[in-house]
Amino acid sequence: MDDCIFCKIVKGEIPSFKVYEDEKVFAFEDINPISPGHTLIIPKRHAQDLWEISGDDLTAIHLASKKIIKAIQDALQPSGVACVQLNGPGANQVVLHYHLHLVPRLAGDPELPVATWELKEGDMEAVRETADKIAAAIK
Ligand SMILES: [Zn+2]
């Protein structure tokens, strides 16, 4: 999709803090992180949501999530990691290209928002450093 911001990230037309890439998926840091290490995993092939994504791409996303969540655990030692995935504007999906959020949780963090949170731009240097830490921890 020509006007899709996530397709542009996959093509490298928009810079991102990449943590992982394989044949089917691309993973990068959310620049409006709910918490440090907030990572998005997306299929390289455009699909809007869970209704549209192919089984192959969905499988690849979830296999990648297993690798990345291990790296987040090793790099950041969170108390937990939430997987959040929204489908459709009615569920507050903001970018209409399937994405799975991995949101590290730390003890004492405020309650995890389920579908609505303030988009607060992160400190880009900190986001880049966290991306590098997670990427380095991927086995
Ligand atoms: Zn797209």
How would you characterize the overall build of this protein?
- The structure is a single chain.
- This protein is an alpha+beta fold.
- The protein has one domain (5-134): 2-Layer Sandwich (HIT family, subunit A), CATH 3.30.428.10.
- The protein is built from three helices and five strands, in the order H-E-E-E-H-E-E-H.
- It has helices spanning 5-11, 55-76, 124-137; strands at 18-21, 25-29, 39-43, 80-84, 100-105.
- It has a five-stranded antiparallel β-sheet.
- A hairpin with a 3-residue loop joins strand 1 and strand 2 (25-29).
- Helix 2 (55-76) packs across helix 3.
- The longest helix is centred in the middle third of the chain and has 22 residues, at 55-76.
- The model has no long low-confidence stretch (mean pLDDT 94).
Provide tags for this entry.
139 residues; alpha+beta; HIT family, subunit A; five-stranded antiparallel beta sheet; globular; binds zinc ion
Blueprint of the fold:
Elements: H1 5-11, E1 18-21, E2 25-29, E3 39-43, H2 55-76, E4 80-84, E5 100-105, H3 124-137
Antiparallel strand pairs: 1-2, 2-3, 3-5, 4-5
Helix pairs in contact: 2-3
The structure holds zinc ion.
